């Protein structure tokens, strides 16, 4: 089952309902929005606390912007080393291509990984 819901405040009340039925958690963070990373960290850790083995895929978006934090900075800012030893966790740096018509290799790799994780859980 695939469930997608936004991370903005009005949608957060739905997270427990859908997360319990999900096969994995995909979390997207804006790498260039430094001021919201503490909020993203708090919300991510709330989401994963309910299910200690749910696989986690994090997309650090907007890596093409000059102001974007490097992937290692995102790992630290989100405290991904604290997600638990029993959880499969993956972190990808991403960005949208200029015209949006091509899929960056990282996104193709992420797509393949997500399909494999979902198949493993079912």
UniProtKB/TrEMBL annotation:
GO molecular function term, any single one: GTPase activity
Keywords: GTP-binding, Nucleotide-binding
This protein's record includes keyword GTP-binding: yes
Matches recorded under InterPro entries: Arf-like_GTPase, P-loop_NTPase, Small_GTPase_ARF/SAR
Superkingdom to which the source organism belongs: Eukaryota
Protein residues bound to GTP: 7, 61-64
Protein name, as recorded: ARF like GTPase 9
Gene from which the chain derives: ARL9
């Amino acid at each position: 089952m695939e469930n997608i819901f936004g991370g903005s405040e009005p949608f957060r009340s739905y997270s427990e309902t859908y997360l319990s039925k999900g096969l994995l958690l995909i979390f997207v963070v804006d790498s260039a929005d430094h001021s919201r990373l503490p909020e993203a960290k708090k919300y991510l850790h709330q989401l994963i606390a309910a299910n200690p083995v749910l696989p986690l895929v994090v997309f650090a978006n907007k890596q093409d912007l000059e102001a974007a934090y490097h992937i290692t900075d995102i790992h630290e800012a989100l405290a991904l080393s604290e997600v638990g030893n029993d959880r499969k966790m993956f972190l990808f740096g991403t960005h949208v291509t200029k015209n949006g018509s091509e899929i960056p290799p990282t996104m193709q790799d992420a797509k393949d990984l997500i399909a494999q994780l979902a198949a493993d859980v079912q």
